[in-house]
Amino acid sequence: MTLENGETVILIINEALYFGNQMDHSLVNPNQIRAYGIDVSDNPYDRERDFGIQHDDCFVPFSTEGSTVYFDTFVPTDHQIETLRHIELTSDEEWDPSNVNMQKYQPRGTTRFVQQMHRNPISRNEAETDLHLSSISECFCPSTFAQRLIESVHVENRQDIDTTDNRSAAEVVSNTRHSVITPERVSQVFGVGLNTAKQTIAVTTQKGIRRAIHPLNRRYRVDHLDLHRNRLGGQWYVDHFTAQKKSINQNTGAWVYSNGNMSKVYPVRSRSEVANTLSTMCNDIGIPDRLKMDRAPELVGKGTDFYKLARKRHIDLTYAEPERKNQISPVDVEIRELQKRTRSKMVRKNVPSRMWDYALVHTAEVMQFIPRSRLRGRTGYEEVTGRTPDISEYLDFDFWDLVWYWDTAHPNIDQDDRKLGRWAGVSHRVGSDMCYWIALANGHIIAETTVQHVTRDELNDPEIKSQIEQFDRQMLERMDDTNFSI
């Protein structure tokens, strides 16, 4: 449907009645929407509430025709389904109107009228007997015993059953095209008791469950699920940092994502590569639920790759007002801090200016592990991922340290095989743990795990000292930034 602000969205109504082409309209139960936690005002005489569906992400206005309350929708195309924002109005859990308890959805403080009461008399003798028996053990109480008996049910796997006798296990056949997720089904598949199955459903999500009814005429779509990627709560921001020199990798700037406590930096050759950085961000730490940015041309417009990817990942995009820089201040503050720390490191370690991209990424990673007072002394990395960070990879070497590395294929090495290089950060996507970026004299950057410091005694060795001076001259010549100003 098309909202009041002109945006077209896809409304998802799970567990609804489907009549195909037999009806020119759809039916939806307002109480089914309310049961999903969404406020619905279908009383046209209520002047204190907006007449429509008040979703967290949008407002769906109602209209009336006679005594009928409705809102306008249309059948979307396949392209619209894949690209437009999706708004869920009902839960994907099974909806049985006859078994819905709407009492629990009433807010506190409302007035309710009791129309009828039923009272089931309890036998005094039975209650006294239960009291005495339960004082010995709770399992002697019939109600407690029955509950524990149900919870202790264990479903055996077929391979666990002794087939030496005449017993046989029948094949499980489903009457529907896909299984309905119930505690019984989880108990059967996972081989656990009903109580454990209920706990399993409560502490997990089931976003990829399919509910096909009709025969298939096209393949299932699976590229929109993201079942194995983390979702990052809270507000995230993104902004671009422009460098003064073109880096050794031809990068001219970097896109920075931050929630104010943790930042991820992705150097790029062009601003238009922002969609690739968002994809990498989703793979690295997770998909941000909400992302705010300025109105840069690469970020706005439904035809941009960034917008399409954000909609595919169900990211709620918002934009800052023009000339109002303080609306994305958390990422601006992080960028200033990153620039200050990176510049200080490069000056102190005499790092060539064309290595700014590696230095900036390394600084951002180190800042993730610094405790912050607003997080009660915890790190931004832990606040976002929920894991205590291990900083072993960042303590052995400092950025631009002079190191020896061995690149021989044979595991047995000696001193003649070692070569000089400069430590340029941790390599996360190449090699294994404790794998590092090493800058060579010719300007190439390689990934190596077998790396050691050049010791103080080796620096005093005339032969090695001469080798180091030659290495530095070649590096300085290769990293010359005279013709690489932006």
Question: Secondary-structure map with pairings?
Answer:
Blueprint: E1 9-12, H1 30-34, E2 39-41, E3 52-54, E4 59-61, E5 63-65, E6 68-70, H2 78-83, E7 85-88, H3 124-136, H4 142-151, H5 183-190, H6 194-202, E8 231-242, E9 253-258, E10 263-268, H7 274-284, E11 287-293, H8 305-312, E12 316-319, H9 329-349, H10 356-367, H11 380-385, H12 392-395, E13 402-405, E14 419-426, E15 436-439, E16 445-448, E17 451-453, H13 456-459, H14 462-478
Parallel strand pairs: 1-7, 8-11, 11-12
Antiparallel strand pairs: 2-3, 3-4, 5-6, 8-9, 9-10, 13-14, 13-17, 14-15, 15-16
Helix pairs in contact: 5-6, 7-8, 9-10
Give a verbal description of the structure.
- By secondary structure, the protein is an alpha+beta fold.
- It has four domains: 9-98, no CATH class; 180-213, no CATH class; 232-385, Ribonuclease H-like superfamily/Ribonuclease H (Nucleotidyltransferase, domain 5); 392-478.
- It is 28% helix and 17% strand.
- It is built from 14 helices and 17 strands.
- It has helices spanning 30-34, 78-83, 124-136, 142-151, 183-190, 194-202, 274-284, 305-312, 329-349, 356-367, 380-385, 392-395, 456-459, 462-478; strands at 9-12, 39-41, 52-54, 59-61, 63-65, 68-70, 85-88, 231-242, 253-258, 263-268, 287-293, 316-319, 402-405, 419-426, 436-439, 445-448, 451-453.
- Strands 10-9-8-11-12 form a five-stranded mixed β-sheet, sandwiched between helices.
- A hairpin with a 2-residue loop joins β5 and β6.
- The two termini are 46 Å apart.
